[in-house]
Amino acid sequence: MANPSIPMPDEMQAEADDRRPSTKSRAAYVREAIRVRFLLEDSGEFDDLLEEADATQEPPAK
To answer: Do residues 20 and 26 touch, judged by C-beta distance below 8 A?
Structure first.
């Protein structure tokens, strides 16, 4: 199995860790997110949902 390193903002990692069940590894949580993205891309829903997510994201702190 590949073992990639995925850079992300500290805040994103903290939120993912807060949201995932304590019984699920961070790697398993990220693999699930990737599988969901594939499903959304295949169904044509991904771009609209990503646009919505980007619109609700807070601007970076200065």
So the answer is: yes
